[in-house]
User: Fold this.
Amino acid sequence: MKKLSENTTDLLQEIKTEASELPKNKRRDFMLNGLKLTAGTALATTVGQVAASQSNLPPNVPEWSKTLGRGVVSVPYGLPSSYESDVIRRTVEWLTADKIASISMTPLHEMSGIITPSGLHFERYHGGVPDINPNEHRLMINGMVDRPLLFTMDDLMRFPSESHIHFLECPANGGMEWRGAQMEALQFTHGMLSGSEWTGVRLSTLLQEAGIKPGAKWVLAEGADAAGMSRSIPIDKALDDTLIVFAQNGEMLRPEQGYPVRLFTPGWEGNTSVKWLRRIEVGDMPWEHREETSKYTDLLADGTARRHTFVQEVNSVITSPCPEKPIQGKGLLQLEGIAWSGRGKVKRVDVSLDGGVSWQTAKIKGLVLTKSLTRFSMEINWQGEPLLLQSRAIDETGYVQPTLAQLREARGTNSIYHKNSIHTWQVQTDGAVNNVQLG
Amino acid sequence: MYNSVKKKFKTLVLAVAAQGLLTSTVAFADESKYGFGRTATQEEIAGWDIDIRPDGQGLPAGSGSVADGEGLYEAKCASCHGLFGEGEGRWPVLAGGEGTLAHERPEKTVGSYWPYASTLWDYTRRAMPFTAPQSLTADETYAITAYVLYLNEIVDEEFVLSKENFSTIKMPNEPNFFEDDRPDVKNTTCMKDCKDPASIKVVSTIAGVTPLEHLEEGAAETAAEAASETTHGKAIYNQSCAVCHDHGVAGSPKTGDADAWGDRIATGTEMLVKRAITGYVGDEGVMPPKGGNMSLSDEDVAEAVHYMIEKSQ
Assistant:
């Protein structure tokens, strides 16, 4: 470590050099810190950090190359690097009355690919996370069946299972912005969205085991949490791709995601994928419970309301740059984003740099799977121009992601749910990114 | 995994059959049933099958009057939902709002929005009171349902709700719901000259509503510190007390508000713990026994009180 008294000039030079590599909005703070050093009021840690970062850079040999590291099973269940400690779920506290019936968002700006680490999957609870002992958990099937059944977890896992990669999205994702932009971060505008590999048994397999009686049209899925979360699902969906899921991303579900077993309705609004599943009842009409009448219905401007709005229509957003990831400097820029559709595969994504005046088709990266996050990218040469960045996804049904103006025209601004409109990021000349809407 | 078998090491003696003589008795599955799980008994189903439908299917025998409901509501519901269903803090408003659904700021309540009375009965039994779900009897649920309908002027004050007359209740907003008919918008895939650049108006965000502290210098350390101070008292608090005390709902002293806590702390920790366990009616509000969560032990409550005092000094 360099001594402050002897090397103040050198240090200042280093600070200047490092600061020149930072975006302008960070540069000011960095320089201020540096100036404090010369005034003799600097914190030792600041000096240490600057000096240490130099001592680990070439031609010096970094300290971690000169000492042995940790051995195997020093961390039996692996954790992210301590340098990634700000990659966490976050909530917006004023959204809900308390944290037990609330929501947190995935840090989409830090995610790569189409899988969200299980510990970063967004959370939504209506009565908190129950601590369920799997040996004392049961799944019941009753109602219009030949034989009502009761399964242990071991029973369930003896049935043939399947694994599928799908997104899961809360229909309220983006719902704070019907009237205007107000979330200055991607995590809060779009973070009620995650992607995972889900493993489980088809619900149709279990319903066949119980024997569905003629006339059955709906099933009720009910959770074992303190909210007794319940949703009605049409029998066609129940017999199609709906899964009884026990594993996520290769391991048993996390408690936050419904441990030990949950329903999973691919492409449908997250609330229908009832967590901590304890019961499936077969019936001939919907139950019209609280979360399918009072909530999760879409109020229109004329006072009428759409109900049973299950499908998450096609949506997309640019994840880099975004407010949390400003552009780092002029030159070639890898613009990147995610698109998804509850009706099937994403067919195409277009990107606009000028607020929707002109569009270019982006490159699709990696896997294109049905009802899954799909990553797109585009290389642009940025020379400090202000931009209005947008992405517009089209799915395999031909449905084109709408503009916010089109959604407002059709629905007004009080729907809360299913706001899948084209999103706009404003890029400033210094690379900073703001959340804006176009009037 | 939770059910992994813990095996003892054994010396395995393998009887190896001569190749070609393995005449297996294992059959390929060809039946439509797997035979896993067992039949659920009527008693088991009765204990769990608590759902109610709009046609009344699922309602148990019983009844409750608006008058009975008033007392129950004030004891078990009003601390969050307000004495007249007006809602405390951000807790749901239950009454009022008629005729506002097409307004710029609609008020969606049981009376103004909910299409079926069965939803109210079902949800009240299934999930309320918030800190003690599935604790109400059938008669209590009828009574509270009747009272909330009365607050919404759907029944009169003499009304007694029962399984028999439930189907006579019609909610005023039922006709205004319709089935999903999306897609309801049609965008194009225009690629060039899609709009006049001069027509674009940029509307910025409303400043100051996004929690952005984590994007500032030193934020990671603060978050790590906050995460490390989890205690049992804090866990109990978050589970059962924060509902009211985080926001000062129903006259409760807000956690962290030294002014509100000063006089209370002066009465002594022992007294505060006692009041929290047995309940307390003060000038400003009502503290239900154990915050309404009777599954807590006295020790749990004491630890939560200690946590709150620590945070409020």
User: Anything to note?
Assistant: The first strand of chain B starts at residue 38 and ends at 39. Chain B touches chain A through 90 residues (CB under 8 Å). DSSP finds ten helices and seven strands in chain B. The first helix of chain B runs from residue 42 to 48.
